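ugh finaly. both done.
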Amino acid sequence: MKVLIIILLSAFSLHTSAKDRATVESLTSLMEETRNPVIDQKTRLESLHFSRRMMEQLLSKDVGVPVKDLNRYFLQSATAVQSLYSDDWYDLQTEFYTTLHQEIFYQRLEAMKKNYKITEYGTNIATSMIGHLGDFSPRAEGRFYIRTNKVSVGVVQGKSRSSNVPFFLMSSNMNDLLAMDAHTPFEELFPTAKNETTTNPSLDTFMKHTPITTRALNQELAEKMQINHRIGIRAAANSAKTIASIYYLTNELNRSQTENKVARFVNANCEGCTPREKSDFTKGAMTYVDNMRKVIQVVSTENLAKNFCSSLKKNGYIWDLDKSKPHALEMIADGRNIVRYVKHRKLSKKNQEILTMSIMEQDMGILFLTRSMNEMNNFNEPAGTNLRCVPSTLKKDAELIRLAIKEAEANVEEYMTRVNVKILKARYDRHASQRALEYFIQTNQAATAEALVHFPQGIKDFAKAVIEVDKDVKRRETTDNVITWGGNIIGVGLILTGIGAPEGAAVLIATAGVVKSVSSGTYFAIRSQQEKKFAREILLAKKGTEDFLIEANLRKHYSEYMKLKVQYIKEFASTGISFFQLQKTALAATGGSVEESHKLLHKVFDAAKSQGQDMAQEKISEMVIQFALNMR
């Protein structure tokens, strides 16, 4: 091991200056990775501090102004902010502020919890929102965001001159930025009359429908209307991904047919969207499923039925009579013959847990969240699956999946109808707008979190709404009925991120308490899909080995992997080698042991940092080559 570290450290004979430690691209990646919920707050704050400082240095280099004079540079010129409008700076700022707002929401919620002890219900809602931002990429959605502060300076002929200063320059202390609450006067929150929509009226329309009241109350109402409007259009965008997923990723429709169906859905259901947004959401949904096809196996409904049945058998829902002799009442009669498989008694808690686990394991497991696929008890809880899972019932099982696809589409449309009605009814009413927000944070944490990203002014309202629904059980009773698994609507399960069986099913379980015997809802909601990606990446790095990681180790390894990844991006950004390549090399050096490879990388990084040197691109390339050659 010592020899390996020496070989690795030979790559550090040259070093780069501190200003070269980061690039716009590497900082963008750092912010994306830092949002991952397995990253602890201390690491996230350190990354935010580091990124803000590096952004200053990069901007200073771009505009040719010393860091200490950057604020003056933006104050002196109204057009100076144009320097931040290039594509790479758009990307970086979007990811930086998304991460910043995630942390602000967390801190505001923690501050409120000092006065109120939040229960598991509220914790799951908040954790799901924060966790969703770990996967959400606003750039992939085309939702770019630049945050500036309008600063007035000087007085000429009785008038002050205003300039826009990048928000990350407002203080050299990240804690100051985290403590600043955004504020825009309500008159500036509304679009022009030309661009107004049903849920986002112009200022004139707002004033006509608002009772004469105080400016403070108008401000509060305008902010809540903006929050709900933004949640509504994000719900529509994510719903479009769901529609695309259930048709294109099951091969029920080809790409052209799927795109037409998505376009019709968006046009019919996104009442608050502008024509441009409708077009963007359709394109975004298709880009989403195009990317999903690269990482999941696209199957026919027959193969999907086989996959579901395979998980049910593996998890013990269906037993082989040759291996077990169940009670006669548990045996399923198939016509005149008793088939070779049995299932648990209908109301068994174990049965619900097995169904949940089977959902988590399938990329399209979200289709399980339908009546078509389940037998329901009197409480609209899944008592058993309608799948029979024997060769003779394959066609019937596949037809159940087709019915589930249609049911899922109908449920999404019904949910969007409810969203639009709720937003429209809540307009111009502060109390109704507050209730609408509380409804959304319970039924759709993803859309709510995404709205938070581009509306930091509402972060306190988001946190307050979590506290309110948590402490007042009556406020969530109706919502629990709405999002029951297999009930009238399953918005929270289907709207989250498009496909998301792990997120959708688990948030439904955690938030609504549908399967009360499953206590790990938050864990699955936040990490299940991420860990599947990690497992795939590790197996790929092992060159297709059949080895697998058991769940208990996977949790630990994934957390360690992410911390190493963040450290690598932050400390050695000038290299041209991806962390995946480095991990692959370390795995090869340690005989395929994930744990040992992580230990080795820790030692290498720590030794490199102790020398006070940074990796140059050509040197880390040399390191990987030498490392690999040494292990042959």
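ok and the 2nd:
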Amino acid sequence: MKKILQFLQIFLIVVMAFVLAEHFSHYLQTLITSQIRQSGIECQLTIKNIHTLTCKNIRYHQKPLAKSLSLTWRYAPLLQGTAYIENITIKDLNINTLLSIQLSQNKEQKSSKLLVKPFIKKAYINAFYSYKGTHRLTLQAKDISLQKAHISSLHIVSPYAKVKAFGIYSNQTLQLQGDIEDLTYQMIRAATIPFIIQADPKKIAFSLIPDKFFIYNYRFAKNKITGKYNYQSLFIQADTSTIYKKSQAVLHIDAIYDKTLHYEANATINNERYNIPINPLAYQKLYAYIKGDLEQTDAKIFNQFISIDIKRQKDSATFKTSPIQTHDLNSSLPKDMYLQLIGSANPDEQNLSILSNYVEGEFSHAKKQIQGTLEFKKRYKDFHLPALGPVTIEANLATKSFFLQAKNIILEVLQKSATLKIDDALCLAQKHDQLLSFSCNINHLQNLTKTISQIYPIPQLSVELAVNASGEYSIDTQNFTLHSKVQPQNRVSPLEYLEYKLHGNPKQIILDYYALLLKDHGFYATKPSIIELKNDGIYVQEFWIEDKVKISGFYNFSTTLGKFQIKAKDYRYSSIEGDIRTKIDIDAQIKQNKIETTGTLTLFGGVITYSPKKERIVKDEDIIVIDELQSPQENYFLKNVAINIKIDAKKPILYKIPDLYALTSPDLLLYKEFGKQLQLLGMIKIFKGVYHLPNQENIEISSSVIDFYGPVENPLLDLHLITRKDRYIIYITVAGELENPVVNFDSEPYLKSNEILSLLAFGTSSKSLISAALGGDKLSSMLSNLFIKDLVANFGIKLDTLTLLTSANRIGFEIGKRVSDKITVIYKNDEISTLIIRYQISKKVESDIIFGPQKSGAHLYYREMR
């Protein structure tokens, strides 16, 4: 508005310059008379001839008025009452001095009664005006009289713009039209602004129609500005639209300047849809109403979701939003949540209050210092934010420092460093030019996860780990490096050691190396693993395991589809469980939550030294189940994983533990459908083997087969065993299912089954073979419960229950004989021999009477019976 007034003022000066110049030229004609001295004007007058007059260094009351004035006239028109001036030239006319000339009323009246009227054929005026800089103008006109004039050109050059115009003066009305070019005034910029001005003794009307102009970075287009000035009040109307990035506003402005400024404005703001989690109807269309003057402004921005009231009074302002229902903005936010913002500002201080039923906060900004507090009232989803306690925030804009403190959490950011402390975990960061280095030391990861879980539920660690990490990040290139070590703080941790180093950028991560020791299993890689991060997903170019196994593939976030390949030409797995060489060729496809794996494992030979767990209870279908088994819960593996992997061997595999030796060859299919249990199909051939019994004859294993038809835990057996006792060769054949096998005996020389069992049980030694077997966990690990039940039954004992037990590196057993409907006699031999008489009182209540060398007594039990 101020700029428009300045240009209007310049246009007014032009008009006055023209009018006064006309009077001035008429007044110069009177300089020949004695009245020149009385007007206050002085100059060096030179009359070259009767047609030419020159006046230099013209001054008005000692103030410079013009550098020179020259005119040429004709005498002949004087006979017709006209002073005909051929041309007039005025150089360096000082408009400031010109405006100060005061002609008396008598002189004006006398001038208007002159019988000779002036007429100027051509006029050239070069002038300047001083107002916040020097404004220079050049006026060329022709056919000038008291009633009419043609302005050929008007050029104005000011510090803010250039003006080119032309027009006509007729019947005391001046009309100009032209362009304002290269406008630059404070925050306003415009290349070209066409204008039209019409001025008469009562008013000045103008119209500006710029194609576009800029205020700050806002571009205004489709502009039309009109106004009137009656020499006392200025009336302006403006219609425009502005586009800033993805926003467009259409404005209509009405303004009146009458010693003070009053204005009203209406705006409609349209925003494009943003990719943000806010209801687009909340911001795509807004309305604004503004009303005010130089002292006060009231504004309101609103739509159906939000309303903001803004008030300005002199140098202070306040704003207040209506209570915002946040669920209307984002449906994932709680339905009962509301938010309201209240703020105030003056040149010295700004304040902001946050009111909500979920969080409250107070912030203030003064002298480049920001201070505030936040207090959370309710949980938000899984975030238990009230556990943070009062949160204190401080910031210094001058030193670029920031400080945040909550319960067990301290964050401090300085100009070139930052510190984060959670419990005793400490992370540091330092900035050097464009390089950011950081380090993190966590002595008790278990305590750290416990503290974080009070705010957000994360998995709790059952073991204590120490983590050390360090790295660098380049701000300009976004490249980073990271080196980390993880070590357990106690012996119960399955993770024994982890170390890795990686580098990359937001688009690619390269794992330089890693070393992992987990439950006596070691994994490492010195070949770089390359992972690309794209907008649509993760692309694994190569991920190495022990520099032999290569994993590659991709996973798409939007489609939830993925495909990975696991390949190795000759991978050697070596640990305390064995040493195996294998070729791996496996494909895995991911679709949503489903994973389907197919491929082959081809074994090139090796040795397996894995021993089964020593502590277990093996049950068959005749065992009394005391506690009812719980049905297995459905888990992710059961529901979402399908497997089809073939396992075969090019060379035999040696199964070797201290007491057992067997040469085997697998030909298996590991198979699983979605929602079904894992199955094993195929067979394991046993070429030969031997089982060593301490102080007893060995058991030889001849050509045998274990067939798998589905359930992993219950294969079909075809085992052929040979042992020697005294002068007899005893052949044992085990066939049928693992859980219910059929055991046959034969011998050379021939013996009956009872004689073979008697020989095996008692023999000639004080310690029989069966007692040795029942006391040797290695035999049980191989034969499990394959033939114990039939072995004991062949002694003529019909058992109702039998359970094979292990404890303290030895095998024991529990056998029972039901003597009536309610009484069962049980003999238990594990660490000691115990006799138990079990009496069933009811379906769910029974008692045990125990007789043993170390303890005896009676117990009453409530049991869920099968």
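summary for the 2nd one i guess: The first helix runs from residue 2 to 29.
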